[in-house]
Amino acid sequence: MTTYAEITGWGKCLPPAVLTNDDLATFLDTSDEWITSRTGISERRISHVGTSEMATVAAKNALAAAGLEADDLDLIIVGTCTADEIIPNVASAVQQKLGAKTAAAFDLNAACSSFLYAMHMATQAIRTGAQKRVLIIGAERLSRILDWTKRESAVLFGDGAGAMILEASDQPVGLLSSHISCDADARDVLSVDFGLSFDRFNFDGIMQFDFVGQEIFKRAVKGMNAAVAKVFEETGMTTDDVDALIPHQANKRLIDHLAKLCKVPSDKTVINIQNYGNTSSATLPIAFAEAVEQGLVKPGDSIISAVFGGGLTCGAGLIRWGQRVEPKQPNNMTLDDPGISALEMILPMHEKTAAAWKKRQQG
């Protein structure tokens, strides 16, 4: 008998502090029109807590939706490129905060592709019988690694987390086919000088964020389209069989272009980038959670997802939803209000980085 990995729980965590395009225009040479016309983004969230805390809230919501307790989990995988610390990992913090004492826990960093990579790995673990219940999370606090003096990248990103529970099932549901890859020849077009790459004795306060937008766009569209084609080839399905496209939320132009290449109509494409920006590994699970909440995902639906991220990692998957689209328990836990605006959190980082750049240029 074939074992499948059914999605039985879903949840998200969106920080309450909102940073609008007009807020960004107070310290960057930009405007709401400039940002929305190029990216489709109107606002994004800024977190006052660390990645592990957002991940834990999303995880609790996913557990509630599945009607499970933390002790029911066999494995926790956290996809992130913005861990709270180098060691120990975010997943161990989530395990501790949840009280999931019997679960193994590890992080996975494929940048924006991390959640689909995690779903791919978790599904294989369940299909082989190694695990029965797996919690997968995508969580990012990108606001703490951005160079807030660089318009081209600062306007794109936001903070947030999303999660899913995968459980063993004898029904043909969950991630039925997936293809993941890496275009390492272009790994330098999206990179952040972070962690052990720092010379800690000579660090001048500038976190180098390299983002070659046009090259990323070109390679991302090509890679995602190829991955989707492989999934269709493996399953024998076509776009006529697809009920929804839920892609990585990186840029609305890119999503529209991907949908056109995949021949998925706009009314079947889930887009929420206007509200949250690019939350990297969190975009996919947040989009899934909202699509279910809003009735865009229905029992038995077939869904195509496609992602790309730093590396350049890439992937696509065909997901068949199960029969349940209602959470077993309320899954709307949120973070407490920070008592400070998003702009008030960002301005000190902008000012500090601007001063560091000035000092560097002065020699």
Automatic annotation (TrEMBL):
Catalyzed reactions per annotation: malonyl-[ACP] + acetyl-CoA + H(+) = 3-oxobutanoyl-[ACP] + CO2 + CoA
Active-site feature positions: C112, H248, N278
Highest taxon in the source lineage: Bacteria
Annotated TM spans: none
Sequence similarity: Belongs to the thiolase-like superfamily. FabH family.
NCBIfam families, per database record: fabH, PRK09352.1
Domain notes: The last Arg residue of the ACP-binding site is essential for the weak association between ACP/AcpP and FabH.
Subunit and interaction comment: Homodimer.
Name of the protein in its database record: Beta-ketoacyl-[acyl-carrier-protein] synthase III
Organism: Idiomarina tyrosinivorans
